[in-house]
Design brief:
- The complex is a heterodimer of chains A (about 475) and B (about 100).
- Chain A is α/β, with parallel strands linked by helices and about 475 residues long.
- Chain A has three domains: about 190 residues, FAD/NAD(P)-binding domain (3-Layer(bba) Sandwich); about 140 residues, FAD/NAD(P)-binding domain (3-Layer(bba) Sandwich); about 80 residues, Arc Repressor Mutant, subunit A (Orthogonal Bundle).
- Chain A has 14 helices and 22 strands.
- In chain A, the strands form seven sheets. Chain A has a five-stranded parallel β-sheet. A five-stranded parallel β-sheet of chain A has the order 9-16-10-11-12.
- The longest helix of chain A has 20 residues.
- The mean pLDDT of chain A is about 95.
- Chain B is mostly beta strands.
- Chain B has one domain: 2Fe-2S iron-sulphur cluster binding domain, sarcosine oxidase, alpha subunit, N-terminal domain (Ubiquitin-like (UB roll), Roll), CATH 3.10.20.440.
- Chain B has two helices and eight strands.
- In chain B, the strands form two sheets. In chain B, strands 2-1-7-5-6 form a five-stranded mixed β-sheet, covered by helices on one side. In chain B, strands 4-3-8 form a three-stranded mixed β-sheet, with no helix packed on it.
- The termini of chain B are far apart.
- The chains are: A alpha/beta (about 475), B mainly beta (about 100).
- At the A-B interface, strand 9 and helix 3 of A face helix 1, helix 2, strand 4 and strand 6 of B.
- Chain B: It holds the Pfam family Fer2_4.
- Chain B: Keywords: Oxidoreductase.
């Protein structure tokens, strides 16, 4: 198999798996690299094998799609046309003339380096959650909605007995129903979107019968678990000293301001909160790929504007797992054809292309419906910590803006240290942008994750793992 | 009352013992450090460098670094990523974890 061209696929979620299966089936050798111990990404995250879960599908929907992807990967691994490198945390993809080196750190400790060489790379790096701050959001017991989901799916763990699920976006539904099914009392699902907005977009949303059925299924599950939904509401504060004890939620008016006098306190030990998703674009950005706003720009074949680099899934724009599957399939087929020296015929993936068009329209419609409160910054008191790593308050950011003239996230960072910590601004950038009154733009991070200095010092002596071309 | 383990029909091998700041807690094979601590009712295991405030899991997927913890004298481990092992000595991380 070593005479086949070699494609490195980064990320083993829906997009990366679909790409791997499609490319391996069409004449290239694929190395699939992922940071987790098992394939699946965030969407198909499964309990660790040692937990010996006999019914992992209880935490998922669309399990059959997962089984198809898993079987496809297994088939190609057995045939030698694909291999799956787990526990590989990619921090940098290096471009040489006509080939690439993928640099990874191994295992959960992420201290030992390894390099994989490939003829082309396909970025399926997924996304992470956007969370906007409010007083009390740093209390233990406040977790991201996706974090609550990941801990539940991956480790069968919950952080308490009574939860509030809050924010905005389609992710809140499976998080609330998942926690409820796992025995957590979900005291409320607090969604800031206005139900009227859904009515205004009825046509675009109703064009997706599968999605309507999915929504109806969640509604039935919420009813069965007696979860009350507070639409056009928002969490204005989390209460507690050493951990979360309650939240105050309040109603929003049509303009997105808090309606005075509507605040009510809900006792809870867990708040799962999220305000949408952001794409992981660090690797693409350092490769020099063009970004459109926050998303990696791709053409109809899912090619970036850098030769030899494809991208698929959330990294090219948040749109969900079904869209990621379609994009991954197209990217894999295109990469396989191009690496074998021929121009692909788009008719080969016509069905996936139709799905892609339809789901991108759906994602755009959802995006216009789900929105954080327009005036969310009004709830952020000056003493609220905005940058969780460097403990920079909203007051400090506001001072940098009002008195020192910071008009963008980068200047605010240089003046306040907001975004300079461990997470490199991934958590606070949307908040700082909101407080500074500017658009959120992609941050430039030379490395996609922290790298030990010793690894950089010995860069020229890194082991290149055997068998890579 | 159901639990996540019941829901997924998980039958892990018997629990083993680890310590949190010297106190013995039980952990299951396959759990991360964070999952074992949550199951023991613990939600914070770090205090911040500047304000000394408690922190635990936030993003749950290794992005935010809020859940840093000291395991077997190695500070700065992400509790949401690191699998728990029999006999682990887990300690609350104060600040960077390098001061003591």
């Amino acid at each position: 198999m070593t005479d086949r061209p070699h494609l490195a696929v980064i990320g083993a979620g829906p997009a990366g798996l679909a790409a791997t299966v499609a490319a391996a089936a069409h004449g290239v050798r694929v190395t699939l690299l992922d940071s987790a111990a098992q394939a699946g990404g965030q969407f198909y995250r499964r309990p660790a094998a040692e937990l010996r879960a006999h019914r992992p599908q209880a935490l998922h929907h669309d399990w059959r799609t997962w089984e198809r992807l898993r079987d496809g990967l297994d088939t190609h691994v057995k045939a030698g046309t694909a291999r799956h490198l787990t526990d590989h945390h990619i921090w940098f993809v290096e471009r040489h003339p006509g080939r690439f080196t993928v640099h990874a750190l191994l295992g959960p400790e992420q201290e030992d380096p390894v390099a994989v060489h490939a003829d082309a790379v396909l970025l399926a790096t997924g996304g992470y959650e956007k969370v906007l701050p409010f007083p009390g959001w740093t209390l233990p017991g406040v977790v991201t909605a996706g974090g609550a989901q990941a801990m539940l799916k991956g480790t069968l763990a919950v952080s308490g007995r009574i939860a509030v699920v809050a924010g905005t976006g389609p992710l809140l539904l499976p998080v609330a129903t998942g926690l409820a099914a796992a025995g957590v009392e979900v005291a409320a699902l607090v969604e800031s979107a206005d139900p009227k907005a859904f009515v205004r977009r009825t046509l675009a949303l109703a064009a997706q019968p599968g999605k309507l059925a999915e929504g109806a299924r969640y509604a039935a599950q919420l009813a069965r678990h007696r979860v009350r939904t507070l639409a056009r509401h928002t969490v204005v504060e989390g209460h507690g000293t050493e951990r979360l004890e309650a939240v105050t939620v309040a109603a929003l008016d049509g303009a997105g301001h808090i309606r005075p006098g509507t605040g009510r306190r809900i006792p809870c030990d867990t708040l799962a909160v999220g305000h949408g998703m952001l794409p992981h674009t660090d690797l693409a950005e350092t490769l020099g790929c063009r970004l459109d706003a926050m998303d990696v720009h791709v053409d109809d074949e899912q090619r970036t504007d850098v030769s030899g680099v494809w991208a698929a899934g959330e990294t090219t724009g948040i749109g969900g797992s079904a869209l990621a599957l379609a994009e991954g399939h197209i990217a894999g087929r295109s990469a396989a054809a191009r690496l074998r020296g021929r121009a692909p015929d788009p008719r080969e993936w016509a069905a996936a292309a139709r799905t892609r068009t339809r789901l991108r329209e759906f994602a755009a419609a959802l995006d216009s419906v789900y929105a954080p409160p327009a005036h969310w910054t009004e709830q952020v008191t000056d003493d609220t910590v905005v940058c969780r790593c460097e403990e920079v308050t909203a007051g400090a950011v506001r001072e940098a803006v009002a008195e020192l003239g910071a008009g963008d996230v980068r200047t605010a960072k240089l003046l306040t240290r907001a975004g300079m910590g461990w997470c490199q601004g991934r958590m606070c950038a949307p908040a700082v942008a909101g407080l500074a009154g500017c658009e959120l733009t992609p941050s430039r991070r030379p490395f996609a994750r922290p790298v030990p200095l010793g690894v950089l010092a010995h860069e020229h002596t890194h082991p290149t793992e055997r068998g890579s071309s | 009352m159901s639990s996540p383990l019941d829901l997924a029909q998980a039958h892990p091998r018997p629990a083993f013992t680890v310590t949190l700041d010297g106190r013995e807690i039980e952990a299951l094979p396959g759990q991360t450090v964070a999952a074992a601590l949550w199951a023991a009712g613990v939600t914070s295991w770090r205090t911040t460098r500047a304000m000394g405030r408690p922190r635990g899991v936030f993003c749950g997927i290794g992005v935010c670094f809020d859940c840093l913890v000291t395991v077997n004298d190695r500070p700065g481990q992400r509790a949401c990523l690191v699998p728990v092992q029999p006999g682990d000595a887990i300690r609350t991380q104060e600040g960077t974890g390098h001061d003591d």
